[in-house]
## 1
Amino acid sequence: MREFFGFGGYTREVEGYMSWQHLVFVSSLMAIMIAAAVILGIRNKNADQRTKNRVLMVSAILIDAFELFKIVLVCIRGGNPLGWLYDLPLFLCSIQLITIPLAAFSKGRLKEVCLDFVFIFGILGAILGTYAAGNNYASYPVLSFDNVISGITHSISGFSSLYIVISGMASMKRRNIPYSIAILSFFCIAAYIANVTLDYNYMFLMRGDGTPYDIVFNLVGGNPIVYPISVVLLFFIYITAFYFVYYLIAGKRRGTAKA
C-alpha cells in the first residue's frame, strides 16, 4: 500500500506511455464508463428530471470526493501544506470538478449552460486524460495512486457527458454557446495567471509535457505568445465543431423521423 500511494517515491518500473499496460487499464475504464452511461441513460431517458438528476448528483459528489482525497494525500506525501496550489481545477479536464456539481445542483439557466458544457467537454477530457495523458503514464507506474485517481475522475467526466446526452438532459441551445466560451475563457485566463505566478503548466498553456499539445508546441516553435493563443483557439474551434456536428446529426434524425 505504501508503494501504491507513492510514499517515499515509486520504486516500480514505469511501464510507459502507450504501453500495453497503459492501454489495457484506460480501455477498461472507458468500457465501464460507456456501459454505465448507456445503461443508466437509457433507463432514465423517459424518467422525470428529478430522477435523471440523481445520477448526476452522485457523479458530482464522487468526482469532487476523489479529487479532494488526492489533494490531501499529495500534500501529506510531499510534506508541503501548499501542495494544493498545484492541483487547482485549472486544467481543461478539471473544470468538470466545478461544472458537474453546478449542472447537478443548480437550477434554471445556470444548470442548462453547465449541462451543455459538461456534455461538450466531458468526453474530450476523458479521452485526453486517459489515452493522451503522456505526462502521467510516462512518469508513474500504471497501477499507482496518481494514475488510478486520475483515471477515475476523468472517467466520471466522460460518464457524465454521455449520460447527459443519452438521458436527454442536454439542451444544446445556440444561445448557450457564448456562455460555454465565457466559462472556458475565464479558466484559461486564470490558468495562465497561475502558470506565471507558480511557474506551472495549467491547461498546458506553457508547453505540451508529453501530451498531444506537443504537436502545437512544436509547430509554433514553442513561441511563448503564439503557443498559448493557439491552444485557446483550438478550444474555441472544438466548441464550434461540436455544435456543428451535433446539429448535423440532430437534423438527420429529424429528417429520418419525418420520413
Note: The chain has a mean pLDDT of 93.
## 2
Amino acid sequence: MSMGIPLFLIFATYGVVNTYLPILLHDLGYGPTMIGVLQGLFEGAGLLFPVFISSKVDRKGNYGLVLILLAVMMVLVLPPLVAFPSFGVTAAALMVFAVGFKGTVPVADAFVSRSLGPKATNYGKVRVLGTVGFVCITVLFQFTRLIDPDSPKSIALWMGIPTALLAVSVAFIPGLLRPRQTAPRAGNAANGAGNDSQGAGSASPTPVTARPRLPFLDRGFSPSFWIGISLFFLGFLGLTPSQRFFSLYVQEYLGLNSYAGLWALSAAAEVPFMFLSGRFIRRFGTVPIILASLVAIGARNLVYAAFPSFGGAVAGQLFHSVCFGLFHPAAVVFVTERVSSRLTAVGLTLYTSVSVGIASVLGNVLGGLVIDLLGYRALFVTFTAFPLIGIAIAFALGRVLVDARPARGV
C-alpha cells in the first residue's frame, strides 16, 4: 500500500536511533547513569504531545501533513545536538527530536488501520515493511563504514537522512497528503448500529462538543483496554535492557563492535512473525499471544544474564521474533478492537505513549542506575520481574481482559 515507503523510512530512522543513540551520548562524554537520564528525558518528551494531537489528527484525517511536520522538526534539531555538547542543550535537543520521533509511529499506525478497515488483522503485513527498513539500515552499517560510531556528527547525519527522506516520500507519493475521512468500523458506529453507516445516512457523527477535553478520559475506552495498556507497559518495561542498553552492553561488557549486526538480527527475526501475525491472531486471539510474549520477554532477559557472550547475545536477539514480532501487532489489534472507532489514533497513541513511552522513561532511568551500581547482568535479571508481574495480572483479571467489545463513547 501507499504507506510502504514511509514506514520503511520511519523504521530506518528507528534503526539508527535505537542502535546508535546511546553510543552517541557515550561519545559526547556521558556515563551510564546520565545516558539513562537523557534517554529517559528523550522518551518522556514524546509522551504528552502525541496524546493531545492524535484526536485532532483522527478527526481531520491529515495524517500525511502531520508526518511531514514531525519529520522536519526532527531534522532541524540535529545540528545543535552535536554542535553544543552540554547537558542542557543535549537534553533540550533530544526532547524536541523525541516529539517527532515518537509522534510518527501512532500517526502512521492510525493511517494504516484506517486504510485496512475491517481487515485490521493484516496490520502486520504492512508494518513488516518498517522492519525491513530497520534491517536494511543496520546491516548496511554493520558491513560498511558509512557511519563512524566514534563521531557524533556522523551518527546525527544518519539520524537525519532517512528522516528527511520520510518527509519527501510523504509529500510526493500520491494520496498521502489527501485528508482521509474516518469511518466507523462495522459494529462500532457512534450510535451503536450494527453495520457500517458510512454513506447510508443512518448514523450521524458524534458532535465534537460532546468529547471530553482530555481524550484519555473518554468513555470510548473499555476496561479491558486499560488492563491491556498495563500489560503492554510491563512488557515494554521488561524490554528496556535489550532495547535501550543493548548497544552499550555489547560494546562495554562484551567488548564487541557487532551491535549493529546484532540489531539487524533481531529485526530480521521479527519479519516472518510480524508478516504472519494476522494468521496467529485469527487462530489464537490477541490475549494468548500477549501472554506468550510476556513469557518470552522474561526468558530473553535471563538468556542475556546467564550467557554473557556473543552466542548468548545472538540467542537473546532471536527472541525478538516473539517479543516484538508478535507482541506489537497483537497489541495494535487488541487496542483497535477495544476502543470506539473515532478514537483509533488516540488509543494507539496511548499505547505508544503510556505502554511504550512511560515504560522507557522509567526503564532508562532505573536501568542506568542498575548498571552503575550492579552491572549489566543484574540489569537483565532485575527487569525480568516486570513481565512476570504482567502475567500474574492477566490471570487475575482474565475475564475482563478477554472482553473485546469496544466501549460506546458519547
Note: The CA atoms of residues 135 and 268 lie 6 Å apart.
